[in-house]
Amino acid sequence: MGKEERFVRIYSQRTALRVTEILVDTVTGVNYMYHAWTNTGGLTVMLDKDGKPVVSSPDEIKAMKK
Fold this sequence. Notes:
- This protein is mainly β.
- The chain has one domain.
- About 10% of the residues lie in helices and about 45% in strands.
- The chain has 1 helix and 4 strands; from the N terminus they run ββββα.
- A 4-stranded antiparallel sheet has the order 1-2-3-4.
- A hairpin with a 5-residue loop joins strand 2 (about 20-25) and strand 3 (about 30-35).
- The model has no long low-confidence stretch (mean pLDDT about 95).
């Protein structure tokens, strides 16, 4: 039996040279945005309107894994 993935990709937008993805940490529920253009990229925590990290609930994470 294989090890479960720590991160789930819930959104992906790609062009020839760019990629934007939203990843969810299945342990903490924290949502991250990854953006890359050619050979550079970055990862950041997604924040809500109050400046707090966006956190998915355990039920939302379970649905994402299906």
